[in-house]
Amino acid sequence: MKEAIAILTGGGPAPGMNTVVGSVAKTFLRKGYRVIGLHEGYTGLFNPSPRTVDIDYPMADGIFNQGGSFLQMSRFKPTDADFENNFNLKFFTDNNVKLLVTVGGDDTASTANRIAKFLEAKKYPIANIHVPKTIDNDLPLPEGVPTFGFETARAFATTEIENLMEDARTTNNRWYFTIAMGRTAGHLALGMGRSAGAAITIIPEEFPQKKIPLQQLVDIVTGSIVKRYLTGKNYGVAVIAEGVIEKIAPEDFKKLGEVVTDEHGHIRYSELDFGEILKQAVLAEVKKIGIKISIIDKEIGYELRCTAPIAYDIDYARSLGYSAVRFLMRGDSGALISIQNNEAVPMRFEDIKDPATGKTRVRKVNIKSVQYRIARGSMMRMEKEDLDDPGLANAYRMDPKAFKERYAYLFETGEEPEAAQAGKAEEKKA
Fold this sequence. Notes:
430 residues; alpha/beta; Rossmann fold; 2 domains; 7-stranded mixed β-sheet; 4-stranded parallel β-sheet; 11 strands
């Protein structure tokens, strides 16, 4: 029986997944391996009858530049009991599977490492390699190295934000609040907001404190609306990373509706009407000031995940797939594959693990970076020096002293002053 590899995709989809699967499959097929695709992620490995598909060369070539994931996905995360009672070792032995290739995010990577260690303990060692995928761009790659799928998602999201900005300008007196995917990091929100020239982008990394009151977010957004209003622009787009939701103080969570979690314990943001809550709170604030606007809240994320990859991600994902094969063929195992300085660099699971949680580390936006400072400086938002502006105080219908006392707390949270200053002279014509 010829040796086989098994390949699966886990988590949520991202542009370029099929490119990775196709690249891996074609390379191993040329080397005489059988390539078995597993549907439903890890579910099949803990099921006596997994759904599989033999991937041949025409199939691999046909899916190469398609969006979505040819292999159906799941977020199944096996428990210790699943490993002891339900693990399908027979799948590996009956099919002579020697290599496991996983494509996914941090949870998929962590589970891949657990499976490899489990099989080794069962005297059936198996090589494994993980190809990092997420439009959130939050896996612990070096700064400046994206995860595949991110650039495609950013490109399509930028176009969508630009369209919303033009709609807001055309209709006037309209703001859009867009909630962007990014559970724990604001890379996607910042990327789309920066590229499209959104009026303001808010990400969780700008709040070093663990929790903030909902009112703080309301005040930040309202400040942007007021400042643009004073420049004659009573319209705009605010981009807010969904991870900001987890920064909201527990006592405010009741305002967000019933909290539903997924298999990994993550809040299902899609079940929360956060945009509506924020919209109503901001409308109440601007009404006090006398500014008349309409606000439309919109989530951006799901429509980005299955779009066909742009040229950058096709080339990037192909390189990752090829590098993964070379890594495994050398007899190596137990790593996440990356491309750094045009070289394939394996990153060991143990080296990228967070010792506190045992999970893969999360890469946050570096708010001290030049990229963030430029983005931050181009936004239209209240700055610390605005506290001494009597014209802005007047717009808020407040005495200058009372105004300063009311909003000074916004700048007592460790916000980088350089970020607010960088690019200040450059005004976006949004």
